[in-house]
Amino acid sequence: MLTIYQTRYSFFHPSPGWRSSASKEKDALFDAGRLERRAYFFEKVTLQSLADQTDEDFILNVLASEDMPKPFANRLTEACKDILGDRAHIIFGASEAPPRVHFRSYRWEHHSSEKWCAQVVLDDDDAVSMDFNEKLKAEAKSVESLRSRGEKFGCISFANGLTALFRDETLELHRLNKPAINLGLAIVAPSKSRYNLFNISHNNVPRDRPTRVIYSQTPYYIRSLHDDNDSRGRYQEDAVSPDSMMKYFPFLKHIVTEWKVLEVPKNK
User: Fold this and answer.
1) In a domain, 230, yes or no
2) Sheet with strand 221-225: strands edge to edge
3) Inside any domain, residue 248
4) CB crowding 156-180: b at 16 or more within 10 Å, else e
5) What's this model's pTM, rounded to 2 decimal places?
6) Domain range enclosing 105
7) How far apart are CA 53 and CA 49, in angstroms?
8) In this predicted model, what pLDDT tens digit does every residue of 205-250 receive, in sequence order?
9) 253 in a domain, yes or no?
10) What are phi and psi of 200, to 5 degrees?
11) What's the CA gap between 39 and 28, in Å, rounded?
Protein backbone atom coordinates (compact mmCIF):
# COMPACT_ATOMS: atom_id res chain seq x y z
CA MET A 1 0.00 0.00 0.00
CA LEU A 2 1.32 3.42 -0.98
CA THR A 3 1.66 6.10 1.71
CA ILE A 4 1.27 9.68 0.49
CA TYR A 5 2.12 12.62 2.75
CA GLN A 6 0.44 15.82 1.59
CA THR A 7 1.86 19.22 2.53
CA ARG A 8 0.62 22.73 1.74
CA TYR A 9 3.59 25.05 1.49
CA SER A 10 2.70 28.75 1.34
CA PHE A 11 -0.19 27.89 -0.95
CA PHE A 12 -2.66 30.73 -1.29
CA HIS A 13 -6.27 29.62 -0.93
CA PRO A 14 -8.04 31.28 2.02
CA SER A 15 -9.68 29.03 4.60
CA PRO A 16 -12.22 30.20 7.21
CA GLY A 17 -10.31 28.29 9.89
CA TRP A 18 -7.11 30.30 9.41
CA ARG A 19 -6.59 33.55 11.25
CA SER A 20 -3.23 34.96 10.20
CA SER A 21 -2.89 37.75 7.64
CA ALA A 22 -0.69 35.44 5.56
CA SER A 23 -3.67 33.14 5.00
CA LYS A 24 -5.70 36.00 3.52
CA GLU A 25 -3.20 38.29 1.78
CA LYS A 26 -0.63 37.29 -0.83
CA ASP A 27 1.75 40.08 0.13
CA ALA A 28 1.87 38.76 3.70
CA LEU A 29 2.11 35.14 2.52
CA PHE A 30 5.09 35.87 0.29
CA ASP A 31 6.88 38.26 2.64
CA ALA A 32 10.57 37.36 2.43
CA GLY A 33 11.02 37.14 6.21
CA ARG A 34 8.04 34.85 6.57
CA LEU A 35 9.16 32.61 3.69
CA GLU A 36 12.61 32.38 5.26
CA ARG A 37 11.13 31.26 8.57
CA ARG A 38 8.82 28.76 6.90
CA ALA A 39 11.74 27.32 4.95
CA TYR A 40 13.57 26.73 8.22
CA PHE A 41 10.73 24.74 9.79
CA PHE A 42 9.99 22.81 6.62
CA GLU A 43 13.58 21.79 6.02
CA LYS A 44 14.69 21.18 9.61
CA VAL A 45 11.48 19.74 11.05
CA THR A 46 9.09 18.38 8.42
CA LEU A 47 11.47 17.10 5.75
CA GLN A 48 13.95 15.82 8.28
CA SER A 49 11.30 13.83 10.14
CA LEU A 50 10.46 12.08 6.86
CA ALA A 51 14.12 11.49 6.06
CA ASP A 52 14.47 9.74 9.44
CA GLN A 53 11.70 7.19 8.78
CA THR A 54 12.48 3.55 9.54
CA ASP A 55 10.25 2.61 6.60
CA GLU A 56 11.39 4.69 3.62
CA ASP A 57 8.60 3.58 1.28
CA PHE A 58 6.43 6.68 0.89
CA ILE A 59 5.73 9.68 -1.35
CA LEU A 60 5.60 13.35 -0.35
CA ASN A 61 3.36 15.69 -2.37
CA VAL A 62 4.06 19.38 -1.70
CA LEU A 63 1.53 21.96 -2.92
CA ALA A 64 2.93 25.48 -3.35
CA SER A 65 1.61 28.55 -5.14
CA GLU A 66 2.52 28.94 -8.78
CA ASP A 67 3.36 32.60 -8.15
CA MET A 68 5.70 31.98 -5.21
CA PRO A 69 8.81 34.21 -5.57
CA LYS A 70 11.30 32.30 -7.70
CA PRO A 71 14.23 32.24 -5.21
CA PHE A 72 12.02 30.52 -2.63
CA ALA A 73 10.45 28.22 -5.22
CA ASN A 74 13.96 27.14 -6.21
CA ARG A 75 14.94 26.67 -2.58
CA LEU A 76 11.87 24.50 -2.00
CA THR A 77 12.65 22.34 -5.00
CA GLU A 78 16.31 21.93 -4.04
CA ALA A 79 15.55 21.14 -0.40
CA CYS A 80 13.06 18.42 -1.33
CA LYS A 81 15.49 16.89 -3.82
CA ASP A 82 18.46 17.05 -1.44
CA ILE A 83 16.63 15.56 1.56
CA LEU A 84 14.13 13.11 0.02
CA GLY A 85 15.25 12.66 -3.57
CA ASP A 86 12.65 11.26 -5.95
CA ARG A 87 10.22 10.54 -3.10
CA ALA A 88 9.25 14.25 -3.11
CA HIS A 89 6.92 15.65 -5.77
CA ILE A 90 6.16 19.39 -5.90
CA ILE A 91 3.02 20.89 -7.38
CA PHE A 92 3.08 24.61 -8.14
CA GLY A 93 -0.66 25.11 -8.36
CA ALA A 94 -3.12 27.90 -9.16
CA SER A 95 -4.91 29.46 -6.19
CA GLU A 96 -8.32 29.19 -7.89
CA ALA A 97 -8.52 25.48 -7.04
CA PRO A 98 -8.55 24.29 -3.41
CA PRO A 99 -5.87 21.91 -2.09
CA ARG A 100 -8.16 18.86 -2.27
CA VAL A 101 -8.44 19.26 -6.05
CA HIS A 102 -4.70 19.60 -6.63
CA PHE A 103 -3.82 16.62 -4.43
CA ARG A 104 -6.58 14.46 -5.90
CA SER A 105 -5.64 15.27 -9.50
CA TYR A 106 -1.99 14.50 -8.85
CA ARG A 107 -2.88 11.19 -7.17
CA TRP A 108 -5.14 10.16 -10.04
CA GLU A 109 -2.52 11.05 -12.63
CA HIS A 110 0.55 9.55 -11.00
CA HIS A 111 -0.54 6.93 -8.44
CA SER A 112 -3.77 5.41 -9.71
CA SER A 113 -2.01 2.13 -10.49
CA GLU A 114 -1.90 1.48 -6.74
CA LYS A 115 -5.07 -0.28 -5.58
CA TRP A 116 -5.15 1.40 -2.15
CA CYS A 117 -3.26 4.24 -0.54
CA ALA A 118 -2.96 5.90 2.85
CA GLN A 119 -3.03 9.70 2.70
CA VAL A 120 -1.60 11.79 5.54
CA VAL A 121 -1.76 15.58 5.93
CA LEU A 122 1.56 16.91 7.18
CA ASP A 123 1.76 20.67 7.66
CA ASP A 124 4.95 22.41 6.58
CA ASP A 125 6.17 22.94 10.14
CA ASP A 126 5.02 19.69 11.77
CA ALA A 127 6.70 16.31 12.08
CA VAL A 128 6.03 12.60 12.44
CA SER A 129 7.98 10.17 14.61
CA MET A 130 10.65 8.08 12.95
CA ASP A 131 8.47 4.93 13.12
CA PHE A 132 5.24 6.60 12.00
CA ASN A 133 5.29 5.28 8.44
CA GLU A 134 6.11 1.78 9.63
CA LYS A 135 3.27 1.73 12.19
CA LEU A 136 0.81 3.35 9.78
CA LYS A 137 1.37 0.67 7.15
CA ALA A 138 0.78 -2.09 9.68
CA GLU A 139 -2.49 -0.52 10.82
CA ALA A 140 -3.66 0.37 7.30
CA LYS A 141 -3.86 -3.27 6.25
CA SER A 142 -6.83 -3.81 8.55
CA VAL A 143 -8.75 -0.97 6.90
CA GLU A 144 -8.68 -2.53 3.43
CA SER A 145 -11.18 -5.16 4.58
CA LEU A 146 -13.80 -2.44 5.03
CA ARG A 147 -14.37 -2.43 1.26
CA SER A 148 -16.09 -5.81 1.46
CA ARG A 149 -18.56 -4.31 3.96
CA GLY A 150 -19.56 -1.48 1.63
CA GLU A 151 -17.46 1.26 3.24
CA LYS A 152 -15.90 3.79 0.87
CA PHE A 153 -12.91 4.55 3.10
CA GLY A 154 -11.64 4.22 6.66
CA CYS A 155 -9.39 6.30 8.88
CA ILE A 156 -6.57 5.76 11.35
CA SER A 157 -5.82 8.26 14.10
CA PHE A 158 -2.67 8.17 16.20
CA ALA A 159 -3.87 10.24 19.15
CA ASN A 160 -0.66 10.76 21.10
CA GLY A 161 1.85 13.42 20.10
CA LEU A 162 3.66 16.55 21.21
CA THR A 163 3.31 20.30 20.87
CA ALA A 164 6.57 22.17 20.26
CA LEU A 165 6.57 25.78 21.43
CA PHE A 166 9.16 27.78 19.52
CA ARG A 167 9.71 30.98 21.46
CA ASP A 168 12.60 33.43 21.48
CA GLU A 169 15.64 31.29 22.28
CA THR A 170 13.58 28.56 23.96
CA LEU A 171 11.98 25.34 22.76
CA GLU A 172 9.42 23.61 24.98
CA LEU A 173 7.70 20.27 24.37
CA HIS A 174 4.27 19.50 25.81
CA ARG A 175 2.25 16.32 25.54
CA LEU A 176 -0.77 16.35 23.25
CA ASN A 177 -3.46 13.71 23.33
CA LYS A 178 -6.27 14.30 20.86
CA PRO A 179 -7.74 11.93 18.29
CA ALA A 180 -9.16 12.99 14.93
CA ILE A 181 -7.16 16.16 14.47
CA ASN A 182 -5.11 16.48 11.29
CA LEU A 183 -1.96 15.42 13.08
CA GLY A 184 -1.40 11.68 13.18
CA LEU A 185 -4.49 11.12 11.03
CA ALA A 186 -4.60 9.04 7.86
CA ILE A 187 -7.35 8.19 5.40
CA VAL A 188 -7.13 4.77 3.76
CA ALA A 189 -9.05 4.53 0.49
CA PRO A 190 -8.81 3.23 -3.07
CA SER A 191 -6.26 5.30 -4.95
CA LYS A 192 -8.77 6.12 -7.68
CA SER A 193 -11.37 7.43 -5.23
CA ARG A 194 -12.10 11.14 -4.77
CA TYR A 195 -11.54 11.10 -1.02
CA ASN A 196 -8.74 12.83 0.87
CA LEU A 197 -8.43 14.62 4.19
CA PHE A 198 -8.95 18.00 2.56
CA ASN A 199 -12.57 17.28 1.60
CA ILE A 200 -13.87 15.74 4.82
CA SER A 201 -14.34 17.14 8.32
CA HIS A 202 -11.55 15.48 10.28
CA ASN A 203 -13.17 16.30 13.63
CA ASN A 204 -16.19 14.23 12.62
CA VAL A 205 -14.27 11.27 11.23
CA PRO A 206 -14.99 8.93 14.21
CA ARG A 207 -18.70 9.75 13.90
CA ASP A 208 -19.00 9.44 10.14
CA ARG A 209 -16.59 6.66 9.14
CA PRO A 210 -14.97 3.54 10.56
CA THR A 211 -11.96 4.88 12.47
CA ARG A 212 -9.22 3.07 14.30
CA VAL A 213 -7.87 5.28 17.10
CA ILE A 214 -4.49 4.28 18.50
CA TYR A 215 -3.45 5.41 21.95
CA SER A 216 0.09 4.76 23.08
CA GLN A 217 2.74 5.68 25.59
CA THR A 218 4.92 7.04 22.82
CA PRO A 219 4.34 10.14 20.65
CA TYR A 220 3.74 9.86 16.92
CA TYR A 221 3.76 13.49 15.81
CA ILE A 222 4.88 17.02 16.70
CA ARG A 223 2.76 20.10 16.21
CA SER A 224 4.82 23.30 16.01
CA LEU A 225 3.57 26.56 17.51
CA HIS A 226 5.37 29.79 16.65
CA ASP A 227 4.72 33.34 15.50
CA ASP A 228 3.68 32.36 11.97
CA ASN A 229 0.98 29.79 12.73
CA ASP A 230 -2.14 30.02 10.58
CA SER A 231 -4.43 28.40 13.14
CA ARG A 232 -5.16 28.91 16.82
CA GLY A 233 -2.38 27.70 19.10
CA ARG A 234 -3.47 25.62 22.07
CA TYR A 235 -1.40 23.24 24.12
CA GLN A 236 -1.52 21.17 27.28
CA GLU A 237 0.47 22.27 30.29
CA ASP A 238 2.36 19.03 31.02
CA ALA A 239 5.86 19.57 29.64
CA VAL A 240 8.38 16.87 28.76
CA SER A 241 12.13 16.99 28.34
CA PRO A 242 13.30 17.29 24.72
CA ASP A 243 16.14 14.88 25.54
CA SER A 244 13.62 12.13 26.33
CA MET A 245 11.92 12.58 22.95
CA MET A 246 14.99 12.39 20.72
CA LYS A 247 14.69 8.62 20.33
CA TYR A 248 11.36 9.20 18.56
CA PHE A 249 12.36 12.40 16.76
CA PRO A 250 16.13 12.32 16.03
CA PHE A 251 16.08 15.77 14.39
CA LEU A 252 15.47 17.32 17.82
CA LYS A 253 19.15 16.80 18.63
CA HIS A 254 20.01 19.59 16.22
CA ILE A 255 16.95 21.74 16.74
CA VAL A 256 17.28 22.06 20.52
CA THR A 257 20.75 23.58 20.26
CA GLU A 258 20.28 25.44 17.01
CA TRP A 259 17.09 27.26 17.97
CA LYS A 260 18.91 29.21 20.69
CA VAL A 261 21.28 30.76 18.18
CA LEU A 262 19.05 30.74 15.11
CA GLU A 263 19.72 33.62 12.73
CA VAL A 264 16.41 33.30 10.90
CA PRO A 265 14.60 36.62 11.38
CA LYS A 266 11.74 36.40 13.90
CA ASN A 267 8.62 38.52 14.17
CA LYS A 268 8.88 41.41 16.64
Assistant:
1) no
2) 127-128, 221-225, 160-167, 170-177, 239-240
3) no
4) bbbbbbbbbbbeeeebebbbbeebb
5) 0.89
6) 3-159+178-221
7) 7
8) 888 888 899 999 999 999 999 887 765 556 666 889 999 999 999 9
9) no
10) -135, 160
11) 15
